[in-house]
Amino acid sequence: MPLAKPLSQSRVALITTAAPYQPGMGEQGSGAKYNAAAKFYTVYSDTTESVPDLRISHVGYDRVHTTAEDPRTWFPLAGLQACVKTGRIGALTPRFHGAPTNRSQRVTVETDAPELLRRCREDAADVVVLVPS
C-alpha cells in the first residue's frame, strides 16, 4: 500500500526486538553468546529523544559470520533522528516500542501485536519501521 503522504511529512514509529540492558542477567555485550536470561516478555516503550542502551544477546543470529558491534545496524534510532534533522522524515513518534521475541505465535498475534498497534496509534504514527534483530 502506498504511503498516505510523503515520508518528509510523516510521523515515523520504530519497533525493535532489542532488549533494554539488564545488569545481573549475564553477558549481553556485542560478543555475547545467546543469553535467554536477557529476554523480555511484554511490550515496552521508551523515548526517542535519546538512544538507550539496548542489546540483542537474547535473540538468535549468526554469531559466526556477523557481530553485534554496531548497534546502528539493529537499532537505527540515531539514523532516524538524523533523517528528521535533514527533513527526509517529518518527525519521529515520541517513543519507540519493544516487541518481545518469546517464540509464541499465539501470544505475538493475540497480545503483543495489538498492544504495539495501540501504542503506535496513540503516538499518531503514519509509518512504522520494524527492525527484528
Number of strands: 7
Kindly estimate the percentage of residues that lie in beta strands according to DSSP.
15-25%
Q: Point out poorly predicted stretches.
A: none
What's the structural domain tally? 1
Walkthrough of the structure:
21% of the residues lie in helices and 19% in strands. It has one domain (7-131). The mean pLDDT is 92. The protein has 133 residues and is an alpha/beta fold. The chain has helices at residues 77-86, 105-122, and strands at 11-16, 19-20, 44-47, 54-55, 91-92, 95-98, 127-131. Strands 1, 3, 5, 6 and 7 form a 5-stranded mixed sheet that branches. It has a two-stranded antiparallel ribbon with strand order 2-4.
Q: Can I get a quick summary?
A:
This protein is of the alpha/beta class. It has two helices and seven strands.
Features:
133 residues, alpha/beta, 21% helix
Strands, helices and their partners?
Layout: E1 11-16, E2 19-20, E3 44-47, E4 54-55, H1 77-86, E5 91-92, E6 95-98, H2 105-122, E7 127-131
Parallel strand pairs: 1-5, 1-6, 1-7
Antiparallel strand pairs: 2-4, 3-6
